Amino acid sequence: MPAIVIVGAQWGDEGKGKATDHLGSQVDYVVKFNGGNNAGHTVVIRQESGDVEKYALHLLPSGILTPGCTPVIGNGVVVDIDVLFQEIDGLEGRGVDTSKLKLSANAHVIADYNRTIDKVTERFLGSRKIGTTGRGIGPTYADKMNRIGIRVQDLFDEKILTQKVEGALELKSQILTKIYNRRAPSVEQTVEGLLAHAERLAPYVCDTGLLLSQALDRGDVVLMEAGQATLLDVDHGTYPFVTSSSAISAGACTGTGIPPTRIDQVIAIAKAYTTRVGEGPFPTELHDDNGEFLRKAGWEYGTTTGRPRRCGWMDTVITRYAARVNGVTDFVLTKLDTLTGLAELPVCVAYDVDGVRHDEMPVNQTDFHHAVPIYENLPGWTEDISGCRSFEELPKAAQEYVEFVEARSGAKISVVGVGPEREQAVVRHPLR
Ligand code: IMP
Predict the structure, then answer these.
(1) Ligand 1: nearest atom to the Cα of 245
(2) Atom from ligand 1 closest to the CA of residue 307
(3) Which of 20, 286, 374, 390 has the smallest set of CB atoms within 10 Å of its CB?
(4) Could you report the per-residue pLDDT of 146-191, keeping only the tens digit for each?
(5) Known catalytic residue: 41?
(6) 401: which DSSP letter?
């Protein structure tokens, strides 16, 4: 078999790219199963020469950087074709071979009108805005569910494509012009834009569900990598402040065509503290010097939009919830080194909601908005831990922090990240 799923445990940006990269050469296929170019993975690789190369990926699966690995964009992804080729060209320019990439014929394509609608809707919502990345993600998923979406396979049949664009624009041009006072693109304009790269796209396109199923039959290792994270999942996240796709482990099944019975391992990535981009509730958010410390020390600025991330203490109600809804078998706790130098480390263990203690995520949105963290304070450490490679090398306080979070999160913490580079990790239990 084995099929492995990697998910984010919090609100995204937990360092999934690094974890995927950590599995590196042991993986034959890395599959992106949801989201689009709203994501941002930064992967740092030290070359044989000793030089450090940093790659920011938005749409391509991080496995694209691993020689021998086949990167796959699954049917659950929404694809901006222009961005896809910008990333391919960028990597090729740096000597990365992208020829093995496979793209699902059933993945949906982000049309120009959906980028516009995403941006104008946010402006229209004013104080009720979601804080989207403005990449057209939500409107494209809405079209998919509305059955007026454009799929990758449509780009190879101009007649069908034109009919579908006509159908979609019939309503959308009314919305753009009459509600938002914007000029709608013409059918020809949209079709032309979508067809611009069709010929170049063709060699990458296939039935990725079949490809992956056959790979599993052969005993190859297939890693399915979520975009965004548990609390941004459209069903299980902090709705409506979520993305529009399934970002939990179950999304790997619908987004790839691999059934649940074939999944062996679910790895959740959790940061040693918490961050969030965009709007929405965030109980442990810090508005003080500690928040600023985390933002600076952890370089918490969005990979996709450059926005400063909101920062807060570790929240084990969230990681426990993530363990439950994803069926987590292993946690990877990233960026423990960012906490170095803080005298005290409060960890949220429960919430107080209007005088009532909640040990689990409140099901009611209003309650979550009112949640006040109940903290337990752990001692910090001052030693530089970036060179530690075994759990025993970590200062006692850092070990206790990891053990405390593990005990409350409901699954073992197998790897602890102590720096941005691939080898800057403490492996407590090998992931494979
Ligand atoms: P959308 O995915 O662009 O529709 O944005 C919806 C919400 O998800 C916003 O709050 C975004 O900031 C957030 N979001 C989307 N992608 C990411 C990501 O990769 N990391 C963190 N937040 C994200």
Answers:
(1) 2
(2) 12
(3) 390
(4) 999 999 999 999 999 999 999 999 999 999 999 999 999 999 999 9
(5) yes
(6) H
